[in-house]
């Protein structure tokens, strides 16, 4: 017999992890969207547990699966983003990074070369994304506000 708490949990499951994107707040809208797209692809590509089952409509049309849990998108100044990056690295959080140079590179290999050419402390960060334990995510994002 299912309890009321179990039924509520099935409707609104709690997640032990958080999906997080942190974007620099001075970007143009197209840059924010582009960077977010690339950043979250790193999470989906490396952590199959983040992706749910395919979707299907009432007529049997099939659609691609998406993340199983909601994500949070934060806005940050350049300094705040740098601080969050450092906090994540101190906690060994696996990160996706997007730097200014990636807006001008023509393909994936050039993207990786652009990142490889710069030391971590010198990366011109546009955004980062990660999935981690929610307590760690809260420490990394401390002081940030959700993107509007």
Blueprint of the fold:
Blueprint: H1 4-11, E1 17-24, H2 29-46, E2 55-56, E3 62-63, E4 71-76, H3 78-90, E5 96-99, H4 108-116, E6 125-133, H5 134-140, E7 145-146
Parallel strand pairs: 1-4
Antiparallel strand pairs: 1-6, 2-3, 4-7, 5-6
Helix pairs in contact: 3-5
Q: What features would you describe in this structure?
A:
This protein has 148 residues and is of the alpha+beta class. The chain has a single domain (17-146), classed as Bit1. 37% of the residues lie in helices and 22% in strands. The protein has 5 helices and 7 strands. The protein has helices at residues 4-11, 29-46, 78-90, 108-116, 134-140, and strands at 17-24, 55-56, 62-63, 71-76, 96-99, 125-133, 145-146. A 5-stranded mixed β-sheet has the order 5-6-1-4-7. The chain has a two-stranded antiparallel ribbon with strand order 2-3. Helix 3 (78-90) packs antiparallel against helix 5. The longest helix has 18 residues, at 29-46. The protein is globular, with a radius of gyration of 17 Å. The termini are far apart.
Roughly what is the average pLDDT, rounded to an integer?
Answer: 93
CATH superfamily name? Bit1
Low-confidence segments, given as residue ranges, are 1-9
What's the order of the H and E elements?
Answer: HEHEEEHEHEHE
Number of helices: 5
CATH architecture heading: 3-Layer(aba) Sandwich
In the CATH hierarchy, the third-tier topology is known as Bit1
CATH class: Alpha Beta
State which percent range the strand residues make up. 15-25%
Q: Tally of extended strands?
A: 7
How is the largest sheet built, in terms of strand order? 5-6-1-4-7
